Amino acid sequence: MEDYICVIDSLRGRKIVLGVSGGVAAYKAAALVRALGRMGADVHVVLTEAGARFVAAPTFHALSGNRVWTSLWDGSMENGIPHIALVRGADAILIAPASADIIASLANGLAGDLLSTLCLARDCPLLVAPAMNRQMWENPATQRNAATLREDGVFILGPDKGEQACGETGPGRMLEPEALCEAILAFFTPKLLAGRKVVITAGPTFEAIDPVRGITNSSSGKMGYAIAAACARSGAEVVLVSGPVALPTPAGVRRIDASSALRMRDEVLAALPGADVFIAVAAVADYRPVETAGHKIKKSGAAMQLALVPNPDILAEVAARPDAPFCVGFAAESHDLDMFAEGKRRAKRLPMLVGNLLADGLCGDDNTVVIYDDEGRHPLPRAPKAFVARQIVEHLARLLPAA
Ligand code: PMT
Question: Which residue, by CA, sits nearest to atom 5 of ligand 1?
Fold first, then answer.
């Protein structure tokens, strides 16, 4: 589980009923309970009879900290009616894994056990993560049932394709717990950027000297990727133009790799039509070698000089366009943050710029930033980059002119 998701705390106070039906993927539900708990959710597990054949109730009890419910006839709940009591006050029901059997029950409004009954009695959203053999998933009956659920407003998450427990390969694998957490998080994130297109640069650039050497900046890409993820969760169409980093592409984000500043500029300009927002998080190299040697330069022992030319300033170029989108700059400074960051914002005529001190911003998981806009400076407390990213998105959504 990526820590950038876990620490975000977006599910604090959310009550999630997790239904676990029969399938080998039930073992992944244990990791899911833990991950949802780490994100602050209050998880209540409902285990079907078939689910309990794969993972027993004490595992879910220990991981969720809550009693596990298995029977429609359990009289120990306050009002003696678990299928009503459990679901009232729930923010969502998630069924993972969802077998072909429970999907068929839900599509037909059956209420033969606790899980199907409480789904029928729910007044909250229902999300379903199918998990079954590929033939079972592709069977017209299952496809019909899944289509019925979609029509009924149920959210179907996945399934994934790949190797299956039975040894076959194809669609039907349950999404991994990380992907399900991301889907839940996106589900609960207010859609502040719905209908907006956002182009983001992230990471360093690499300016090649020869095939094995180059000039680069220190940047992990974490801040830019966290902003891309936050924008996607907020409903935006996101194009992420990325320098060389070792990070997975956030869910719902179109990523374009661009190693050098020149390439990054070309990709940004190509992605720009229709963009409402441009966020330049990348640490772009200010200079590049005049020439890139075609072969590895041999060591001669003599002093060597490298001729450099300035790279184009991508952000300045985008911000100066007559049809410029809402531009957000970044500035990493070692001292006098206010003076340098606000100076960059004014020089590039940006409505918003995020300043961070080098010690905090570079490569680590946390960041301390100050947002600068026409109203002044807005310091944010030190926090994980995912959390900072969410606040930056909330701030820009407030400043963004109406579409
Ligand atoms: O990737 P991480 O490890 O998480 O670190 C994040 C970060 C520290 C790199 C990030 O938060 C950050 O501050 N990025 C901007 C770094 C910087 O100081 O850039 P700059 O002062 O060179 O440029 C100012 C702005 O112009 C930036 O928005 C930059 O992306 C943009 N720029 C700069 C030069 C250039 N040729 N083209 C640009 O678009």
Answer: 362
